[in-house]
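2024-03-11 09:14:02 INFO worker-7 job=invfold-0412 stage=load source=structure_tokens
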């Protein structure tokens, strides 16, 4: 049985963002495991947990980062007994997990060790590790700390942390930041959230007698109104983890030479985690990494669930078939009918920035985020 470990995501804006993750439903800076719903259902065929099934230490595992365990059909339930078991859990500071009081207890390295301890508890020797946004940063650290525990690695909407958490600065982002700071009601907050999570094209699609924007808007308002506040300790701690995240050359070398396959999956319209940073990371992980660009924004896993799930299954199948890293990344560039761009050799991305502007902007954003009061909101099923 294949086992998948999903790392929760963190969304970064001039506010508490939205996260794919673990624990109770939330749409705050750190989200919960429920947000992985489209991937759990797509990969296993069900959202029903199977927590009463004992772990099998002798089998390879796959994982995602979040709190409660959810499993696919057990061995023997499908042809050849080759099912998929999934574990999603809440990172520290959110959902059902503990909330350490000091931000020094939060880093991507510490949270990677949390995930590793959970794998040990489950008796999972190895896993396919998937992470989104901050969860992808955590997944990178996990891969560097214990590369022998990974079957494969999928990084969704990832950045390198630090100043790379700074969102794209343009008229749209400045408008969203201004509206967010002025938002006093769940209705005003929901409008801003939708525009940062999804593309306009997706929101304007007709679903039945109304648009997807109207449906999601109602769900967002309900979630923001009902789920209460995320603790300041958890919020500030996870922000600290993002600002201090950094992958050294030695760590990237360890991941690249470990032998497992890597997919870097990203929405090309993401205004929070910019595509250029994901491409740069993928380039540094060649020949093990394949870059997959999708038409979508930060929540591309909700906006394009089928394409994301197909990319994850391709990774799992290639791993089972013992495809070599050089073969995985050497496949020719391909554009699918749905607009997915799959490139084995990531394009070199050169960024020219004014160092003084970056430093000033970075410090300014830190000050803004520091005084924000995070709000937990419900995970949204698209």
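2024-03-11 09:14:09 INFO worker-7 stage=emit residues=382
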């Amino acid at each position: 049985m294949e086992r998948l470990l999903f790392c929760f995501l963190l969304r970064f804006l001039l506010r508490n963002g939205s996260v794919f993750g673990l624990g109770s439903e939330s749409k705050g800076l750190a989200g919960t495991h429920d947000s992985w719903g489209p991937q759990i259902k797509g990969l296993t065929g069900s959202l029903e947990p199977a927590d009463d099934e004992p772990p099998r230490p002798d089998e390879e595992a796959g994982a995602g980062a979040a709190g409660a365990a959810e499993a696919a059909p057990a061995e023997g339930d499908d042809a050849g007994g080759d099912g998929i078991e999934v574990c999603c859990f809440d990172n520290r500071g959110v959902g059902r997990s503990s909330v350490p009081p000091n931000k020094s207890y939060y880093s991507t390295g510490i949270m990677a060790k949390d995930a590793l301890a959970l794998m040990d508890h489950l008796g999972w020797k190895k896993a396919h590790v998937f992470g989104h946004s901050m969860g992808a940063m955590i997944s990178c650290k996990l891969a560097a700390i214990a590369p022998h525990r990974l079957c494969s690695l999928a990084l969704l909407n990832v950045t390198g942390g630090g100043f790379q958490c700074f969102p794209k600065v343009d008229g749209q982002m400045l408008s969203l930041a201004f509206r967010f700071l002025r938002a006093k009601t769940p209705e005003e907050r929901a409008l801003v959230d939708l525009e940062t999570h999804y593309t306009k094209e997706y929101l304007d699609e007709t679903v039945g007698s109304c648009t997807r924007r109207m449906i999601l808007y109602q769900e967002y308002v309900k979630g923001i109104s009902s789920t209460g506040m995320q603790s300041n300790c958890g919020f500030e701690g996870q922000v600290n983890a993002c600002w201090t995240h950094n992958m050294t050359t030695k760590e990237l070398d360890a991941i690249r030479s470990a032998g497992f396959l890597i997919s870097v999956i990203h929405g090309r319209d993401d205004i929070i985690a910019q595509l250029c940073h994901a491409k740069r990371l993928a380039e540094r992980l060649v020949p093990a990494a394949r870059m997959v660009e999708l038409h979508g924004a930060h929540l591309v896993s909700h906006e394009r669930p089928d394409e994301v799930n197909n990319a994850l299954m391709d990774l799992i199948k290639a791993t089972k078939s013992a495809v070599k890293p050089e073969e995985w990344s050497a496949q020719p560039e391909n554009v699918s009918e749905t607009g997915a761009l799959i490139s084995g050799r990531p394009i070199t991305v050169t960024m020219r920035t004014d160092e003084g502007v970056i430093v000033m902007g970075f410090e300014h954003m830190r000050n803004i985020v520091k005084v924000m009061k995070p709000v937990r909101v419900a995970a949204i099923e698209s």
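2024-03-11 09:14:09 INFO worker-7 stage=report msg="The longest strand covers residues 150-156."
2024-03-11 09:14:10 INFO worker-7 job finished
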